[in-house]
């Protein structure tokens, strides 16, 4: 095995590497690729290429061992400046592998990671404590393709290289009701801090694509996420019980919500009690004919608070920023701010549902009512809309503090007569066409609030990192 070091201090390196039985070689910048740059929360001192670990990029040979042994070895540099693993041009078939701290996985623009369809390659993990069961089946769940837990400082990036989940195998099993474990996600990072996932194309995940959970300080940027619009549960990005998350410049076409903000399910989520808070989403484009551009819930039992959404676009999508909850969920959705939505061909512009149903088991607490309050939308232009709004709170538990301002909705030819259907909600509106419902009266001229301060995750600057290596 060859390992390429980018820095001086060769003597100490040889000492460290000696014990790993690897050879340090001179790094030359050779044919095809000059020094390459990318942007990341942290750069790495050490660098290796997947082929150094026996990787074969023919689309047929399994690289599971190559990925696993590469990351295991590179993990030993965590306290010595960290390491990056470069996936060169080629098609790299692999089963799941686990990430390590102070580590970067970098995909060349012509690199494609292909997920194995051999089920025995996929480790089984216990169910998530805030869910109490799997989403597809009550028992355990398959590991995600790229998995990490209890990590700090992890980057998954590239020059728009591709990760292909080859999800059709799993979608078929789902449709045929043959799953006794929950399907894998594409990328899941748990109990971790300082995560970056950027500049990649992700296609055909078996289920959700990107799932940070119980984590903090997460930057998700420049992802193109593509799945057939009829594929089951292929959510794009699901921040779940996470603090300080920034999602920007993403383009998502999928069979489920483009972004789904979550925090655990019914009694399990209430008990676990970890909210998703301090989340900013901007410059998202979404196509999802049967789902939402951004869903808040339905699993929101640990609470969702302080979400800022700006400059988002949906095309041929069922709804825009939707709230999904139910009796039994408990928790809250509070302080949600949406500013600047451009929407075309929508079933609903505004949609809130207090009767979402779907419980983990019959033991949910019927007295656990969600608190939905402080939901603000402003500056919306929508065309070809079927229903302007369906806002359905919960009786004896109304959704309150709704504010909607500066909204222009052009309804479609097939428009429905009742454009604003409001039950068990309370709030105010200003400068909204067509006219709203009695529960959301026009209250003169004002703009709904949007915070002026910045979240700490917005102040994180990406550094320019380099790769000096022949592919
Ligand atoms: C990844 O780590 C989890 C436990 O943290 C383990 O159960 C799983 O088997 C590991 N996966 C691989 C591919 O080694
Ligand atoms: C993404 O990759 C492109 C090159 O393909 C590069 O120009 C751009 O700066 C990269 N962005 C980040 C955030 O790394
Ligand atoms: C990344 O690749 C996808 C798929 O080919 C493409 O649609 C997208 O525009 C690319 N993104 C960038 C920033 O080049
Ligand atoms: C899971 O399902 C497969 C068939 O899809 C079956 O062979 C296997 O025995 C099942 N395992 C359990 C634990 O039920
Ligand atoms: C997240 O980043 C902030 C600001 O950089 C820092 O204060 C905080 O400790 C980090 N969160 C965790 C859980 O480490
Ligand atoms: C308007 O929406 C309908 C579906 O409600 C769709 O069939 C039609 O193509 C859309 N028209 C335009 C001009 O986008
Ligand atoms: C809901 O949350 C708001 C704001 O935090 C609070 O004032 C109110 O008392 C809560 N309502 C209920 C029913 O808990
Ligand atoms: C109203 O919304 C439109 C579209 O987003 C925006 O261009 C305009 O500046 C807004 N008007 C005010 C007064 O904020
Ligand atoms: C309005 O919404 C309520 C509550 O969801 C529903 O029962 C009713 O059928 C809706 N009315 C129309 C005309 O769609």
Automatic annotation (TrEMBL):
Keywords: Cell wall, Glycosidase, Hydrolase, Secreted, Signal
InterPro entries per the UniProt record, alphabetical: GH28_Enzymes, Glyco_hydro_28, PbH1, Pectin_lyas_fold, Pectin_lyase_fold/virulence
Gene3D superfamilies per record: Single-stranded right-handed beta-helix, Pectin lyase-like
Localization per Swiss-Prot or TrEMBL: Secreted, Cell wall
Pfam families: Glyco_hydro_28
Keyword Secreted carried by entry: yes
Signal peptide (residue range): 1-27
SMART domains named in the record: PbH1
Any Gene Ontology biological process: carbohydrate metabolic process
A GO molecular function held by the record: polygalacturonase activity
Record family assignment: Belongs to the glycosyl hydrolase 28 family.
Name of the molecule in the record: Pectate lyase superfamily protein domain-containing protein
């Amino acid at each position: 095995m060859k390992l390429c070091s980018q820095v001086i201090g060769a003597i100490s390196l040889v000492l460290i590497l000696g014990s790993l039985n690897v050879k340090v070689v001179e790094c030359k910048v050779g044919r095809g690729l000059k020094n390459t740059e990318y942007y990341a929360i942290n750069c790495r001192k050490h660098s290796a290429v997947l082929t150094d670990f026996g990787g074969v990029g023919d689309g047929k040979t399994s690289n599971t061992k190559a990925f696993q042994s590469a990351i295991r070895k590179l993990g030993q540099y965590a306290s010595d400046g960290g390491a990056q693993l470069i996936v060169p041009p080629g098609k790299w078939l692999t089963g799941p592998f686990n990430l390590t701290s102070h580590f970067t996985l970098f995909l060349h623009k012509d690199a494609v990671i292909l997920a194995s369809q051999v089920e025995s390659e996929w480790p089984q993990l216990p169910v998530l404590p805030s869910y109490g069961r799997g989403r597809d089946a009550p028992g355990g769940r398959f590991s995600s393709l790229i998995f990490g837990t209890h990590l700090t400082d992890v980057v998954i990036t590239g020059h728009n290289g591709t990760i292909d989940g080859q999800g059709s195998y799993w979608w078929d099993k789902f449709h045929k009701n043959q799953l006794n474990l929950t399907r894998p996600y594409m990328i899941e990072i748990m109990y971790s801090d300082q995560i970056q996932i950027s500049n990649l194309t992700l296609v055909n995940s078996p289920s959700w694509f990107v799932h940070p959970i119980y984590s903090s300080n997460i930057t998700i940027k420049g992802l193109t996420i593509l799945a057939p619009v009829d594929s089951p549960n292929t959510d794009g990005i699901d921040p779940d019980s996470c603090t300080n998350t920034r999602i920007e410049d993403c383009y998502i076409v999928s069979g489920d919500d483009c972004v789904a903000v979550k925090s655990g399910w019914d009694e399990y989520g209430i008990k676990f009690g970890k909210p998703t808070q301090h989340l900013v989403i901007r410059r998202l484009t979404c196509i999802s004919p049967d789902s939402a551009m951004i869903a808040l819930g339905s699993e929101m039992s640990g609470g969702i608070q302080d979400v800022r959404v700006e400059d988002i676009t949906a095309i041929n999508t069922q709804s825009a920023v939707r709230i999904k909850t139910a009796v039994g969920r408990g928790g809250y959705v509070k302080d949600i701010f949406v500013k600047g939505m451009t929407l075309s061909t929508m079933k609903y512009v505004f949609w809130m549902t207090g009767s979402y149903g779907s419980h983990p088991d019959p033991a949910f607490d019927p007295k656990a009512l969600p608190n939905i309050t402080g939901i603000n939308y402003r500056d919306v232009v929508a065309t070809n809309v079927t229903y302007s709004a369906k806002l359905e709170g919960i009786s004896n538990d109304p959704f309150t503090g709704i504010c909607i301002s500066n909204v222009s909705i052009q309804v479609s030819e097939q428009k429905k007569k009742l454009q604003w259907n409001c039950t068990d909600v309370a709030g105010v509106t200003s400068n909204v066409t067509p006219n709203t419902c009695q529960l959301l009266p026009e209250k003169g001229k004002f703009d709904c609030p949007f915070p002026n301060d910045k979240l700490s995750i917005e102040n994180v600057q990406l550094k320019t990192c380099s790769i000096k290596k022949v592919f």
